[in-house]
Design brief:
With 311 residues, this protein is mostly helical. It has three domains: 110 residues, no CATH class; 72 residues; 101 residues, no CATH class. It is flat, with a radius of gyration of 36 Å. Strands 1-2-3 form a three-stranded parallel sheet, with helices on one face. It contains ten helices and seven strands.
Length: 311
């Protein structure tokens, strides 16, 4: 059994939560004012719900459940009314002022609001089922009235027109065919116009650095037979496969168009084993990799090397 101090603490936490809900509504006052009066109360309730879910109320929910009270887990249809009712009950249990209790109910039952909005959007509820059936009309529906009639007869409740396709004349023809096939028992079939969004398309890719993949060599069974290697060089002297003689260039498969070697550069053959590569990397300063276009080794398993620059 909870003590009075524990009930007072729980009540204070719930009151603080309610104050945050009120503050959230005040922060969205301009946006709420722009909502149609018919849906303004629902907009306020939505803000209450979003603000409620921004709080971690699990501890309070456990305490409320232990007291046999509503734990706010199903409060989404009427957030403020549910929270206010719980606060009022706790205030009554601890002998506090209960002036909040009068606002613990909504002027319109939330189920009625939901049912009304659903009926206006999707039409009347069919007698044989609790769900509505929405069918996207194909382009042929603009010219084939019989096709639309068969869909209505089969139980279509909402005809969806995909405005990302066809044109206004086709849409109008589809709607005309839907309206021509009424449903005496349920009223006209509803029409949903699904407006097309922005058509974002990509063009030709601009020239730029290509993705280079370094992968190990595997045998037919998938066992690695040779590791993929990357040669890292210092910032001031990136590896350039160039030399003073054609023979040295041919030794590493370099192109004859490689840039001339500076006086401070020398021909360096990259490590050919993983231990040697690990040793070179471990002794190198922190660097940022960038692709070097100068090295084209004859070994087809590695089609590039890497130059570096300081981070």
């Amino acid at each position: 059994m909870a003590t009075r101090a524990e009930l007072n603490r729980l009540t204070a936490n719930l009151v603080a939560l309610r104050d945050d809900l009120h503050a959230a509504v005040e922060a969205q006052h301009a946006r709420i004012a722009a909502v149609h009066p018919l849906h303004r109360e629902s907009a306020v309730n939505l803000i209450h719900y979003v603000e409620l879910r921004r709080h971690d109320i699990r501890a309070m929910q456990e305490e409320l459940a232990g007291l046999g009270l509503c734990s706010l887990g199903r409060a989404e249809p009427h957030v403020m009314a549910t929270l206010t009712a719980v606060i009022a009950f706790l205030q009554m249990a601890t002998g506090q002022d209960q002036h909040e209790a009068s606002s613990a109910t909504l002027s319109v039952a939330p189920e009625t609001v939901l049912e009304r909005n659903t009926r206006q959007l999707l039409g009347a509820v069919p007698a044989s089922r609790s769900t509505r059936i929405m069918v996207t009309l194909p382009s042929e529906a603009a010219d084939e009235a019989a096709l639309v009639g068969s869909l209505v007869t089969a139980g279509m409740d909402v005809a969806r027109v995909n405005c990302a396709h066809d044109d206004r004349e086709a849409w109008a023809a589809m709607i005309h065919h839907v309206r021509d096939h009424g449903r005496p028992q349920l009223g006209p079939c509803m029409v949903a116009m699904d407006l097309a969004g922005p058509k974002l398309r990509t063009g030709a890719l601009q020239p730029g650095p290509q993705v280079v993949r370094i992968a190990p060599t595997r045998d037919a069974s998938g066992v690695v037979t040779a590791h993929g290697l990357a040669w890292l060089t210092a910032t001031g002297a990136p590896f350039v496969c160039s030399s003073r003689t054609r023979g040295e260039r041919n030794a590493c498969g370099a192109s004859s168009t490689s840039p001339p070697m500076a006086s401070s550069q020398r021909f360096v053959r990259p490590p050919t084993s993983e231990p040697a590569l690990r040793s070179a990397v471990s002794n190198a300063p922190r660097t940022e990799l960038r692709r070097s276009e100068h090295y084209r080794p004859s070994n087809s398993r590695c089609a590039c090397t890497w130059a570096t620059r300081s981070c």
